């Protein structure tokens, strides 16, 4: 296109941000502030049209918070960025293009001048027999809604069962992972089932069995012994069996076999063992550390011009603890996104680049009801004070006033009203495996000469898919 004076206007550089999680969302928000409209074209590639506030997924699974209330709409939050819905499944670093796969199966090549990789992570799985087929994850809204439906369906089955063995299996729920997500899930879901049991004429709260399993020596090891012990006391007070120093050796549709030799009859295995980087990282053929893409403290990818990475998918050096990497937490992802935006802008001539350096603000764990544990700025809090800090932190961290109001009302209604027990039916059984729900099978493998090195980086944490890259269907439960 030629201007009236006969000159051709210079093309604006394209900044492509991959991922709309905490890292990508806050990076794009800050890019809109750092870069004038004429400085760059801003593109955000996202599999959904919202930022998912994932720390509240256990609240969704337990029915305390409505699913849409933790989804922050991208179009309402971003002023200039163009949202491209789909998964970025491949990147051509030399050609400076990315392949976007849409939900309908079509693909689009997107050219970029600056590439910002913030694809986040997927549920970390291991090569344990039966886990890929039978475990349920908790990384997406669909998984959280399905978990709630599944648990309510098991209570229905238990109420209708005449066989005592089947009844026990329907009433038994196993959660793997005693970190933040697993501990919150076990605690909050136990409350849901206890409250729900009152609505089933043939069920009693004593029929329910919740088991929390972890290889670690204590619950919530990141929070220290005191708060871990406080959380353990809450769990055991509610009747949750905590099995530490233990792992899963096999899972079937009917039972879970543990490393201590016990086989637990159960149709429910919830997998909350942390995250591993998005499978996109493996396809790049770039150096990794513990499966995460190596970057400098300025969040640039060494040796590749114009590429930045951070969040769960990147090995960001922790300048406060030399030799270590920053944790895969929402707190880090959000703050790294803001630093990355500043450095991307600096690479285009606006401002000055800086290194990522953080100060730990502490952690919060919502155990449901009136219980929580928190460590704001290193101060250990439990019970009601911990709950006030925990939920106050979540409200401050939610980047939308409308979402804050809705979540606050959900919490209030949960305290004063009985839970609604209707199943939503958003996801079918065959779509509920970790690989299917999180779309881990849509990415191409790494270049052939890089495959062996990439495999060495993550020997046990790659999402489990079949040889064709398609998730294996989950075996349907009897009844």
What does this structure look like?
- The chain is built from 13 helices and 26 strands.
- It has 479 residues and is of the alpha/beta class.
- Strands 5-2-1-9-22 form a five-stranded parallel beta sheet, with helices on one face. The chain has a five-stranded parallel beta sheet with strand order 11-18-12-13-14. A three-stranded antiparallel beta sheet has the order 6-7-8, with no helix packed on it.
- Helix 1 runs parallel beside helix 9.
Provide tags for this entry:
479 residues, alpha/beta, five-stranded parallel sheet, 13 helices, 26 strands, 31% helix, globular, disordered N terminus
What would a concise description of this structure say?
The protein is an alpha/beta fold and 479 residues long. The protein has 13 helices and 26 strands. α5 (141-160) runs antiparallel to α6 (164-170).
Spatial extent as radius of gyration: 23 Å
Structural class determined from secondary elements: alpha/beta
What percentage of the residues does DSSP assign to strands (E)?
15-25%
Number of strands: 26
Question: What is the residue-averaged pLDDT?
Answer: 88
Q: For the terminal residues, how far apart are their CA atoms?
A: 65 Å
Largest sheet report? 5 strands, parallel
Please give the structural blueprint.
Blueprint: E1 14-18, H1 22-34, E2 41-46, E3 50-52, H2 57-61, E4 71-73, H3 74-77, E5 82-85, E6 87-92, E7 97-101, E8 107-111, E9 114-117, E10 121-123, H4 131-134, E11 135-136, H5 141-160, H6 164-170, E12 172-176, H7 180-197, E13 209-214, H8 225-237, E14 241-244, E15 248-251, E16 255-258, E17 263-265, E18 268-271, E19 275-277, E20 288-289, E21 292-294, E22 307-309, E23 314-315, H9 330-347, E24 364-366, E25 372-374, E26 381-382, H10 383-397, H11 401-416, H12 434-437, H13 448-457
Parallel strand pairs: 1-2, 1-9, 2-5, 9-22, 11-18, 12-13, 12-18, 13-14, 21-23
Antiparallel strand pairs: 3-4, 6-7, 7-8, 10-19, 15-16, 16-17, 20-21, 24-25, 25-26
Helix pairs in contact: 1-9, 5-6, 5-7
């Amino acid at each position: 296109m030629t201007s009236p004076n006969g000159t051709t206007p210079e093309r604006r550089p394209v900044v492509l941000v991959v991922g709309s999680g905490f890292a990508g969302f806050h990076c794009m928000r800050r890019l809109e502030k750092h870069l004038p409209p004429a400085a760059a074209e801003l593109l955000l590639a996202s599999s959904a049209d919202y930022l998912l506030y994932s720390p509240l997924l256990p609240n969704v699974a337990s029915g305390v918070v409505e699913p849409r209330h933790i989804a922050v709409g991208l179009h309402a939050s971003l002023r200039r960025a163009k949202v491209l819905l789909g998964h970025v499944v491949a990147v051509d670093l030399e050609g400076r293009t990315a392949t976007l796969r849409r939900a309908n199966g079509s693909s689009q090549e997107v050219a970029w001048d600056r590439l910002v990789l913030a694809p986040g992570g997927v549920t970390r799985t291991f090569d344990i027999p039966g886990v890929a087929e039978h475990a349920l994850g908790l990384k997406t809204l669909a998984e959280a809604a399905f978990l709630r439906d599944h648990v309510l369906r098991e209570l229905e089955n238990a109420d209708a069962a005449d066989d005592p063995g089947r009844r026990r299996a329907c009433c038994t729920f196993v959660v793997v992972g005693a970190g933040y997500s697993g501990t919150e899930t076990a605690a909050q879901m136990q409350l849901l089932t206890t409250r729900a049991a009152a609505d089933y004429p043939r069920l009693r709260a004593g029929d329910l069995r919740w088991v929390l399993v972890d290889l670690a020596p204590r619950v919530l090891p990141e929070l220290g012994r005191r708060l871990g012990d406080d959380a353990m006391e809450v769990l055991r007070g509610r009747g949750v069996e905590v099995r530490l120093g233990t792992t899963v050796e096999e899972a079937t549709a009917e039972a879970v076999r543990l490393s201590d030799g016990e086989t637990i009859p159960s149709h429910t295995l919830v997998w909350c063992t942390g995250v591993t980087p998005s499978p996109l990282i493996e396809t790049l053929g770039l150096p990794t550390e513990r499966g995460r893409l190596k970057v400098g403290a300025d969040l640039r990818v060494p040796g590749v011009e114009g590429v930045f990475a951070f969040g769960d998918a990147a090995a960001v050096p922790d300048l406060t603890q030399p030799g270590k990497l920053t944790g895969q937490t929402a707190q880090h992802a959000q703050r790294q996104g803001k630093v990355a935006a500043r450095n991307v802008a600096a690479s285009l001539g606006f401002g000055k680049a800086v290194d990522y350096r953080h100060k730990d603000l502490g952690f919060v764990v919502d155990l449901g009801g009136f219980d929580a544990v928190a460590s704001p700025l290193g101060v250990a809090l439990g019970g009601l004070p911990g709950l006030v800090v925990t939920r106050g932190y979540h409200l401050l961290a939610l980047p939308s006033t409308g979402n804050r109001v809705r979540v606050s009302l959900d919490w209030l209604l949960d305290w004063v009203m009985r839970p609604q027990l209707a199943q939503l039916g958003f996801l079918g059984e065959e779509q509920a495996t970790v690989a299917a729900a999180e779309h881990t099978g849509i990415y191409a493998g790494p270049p052939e000469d890089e495959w062996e090195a990439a495999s060495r980086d993550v020997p046990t944490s790659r999402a489990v898919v079949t040889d064709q890259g398609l998730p294996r269907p989950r075996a349907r439960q009897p009844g």
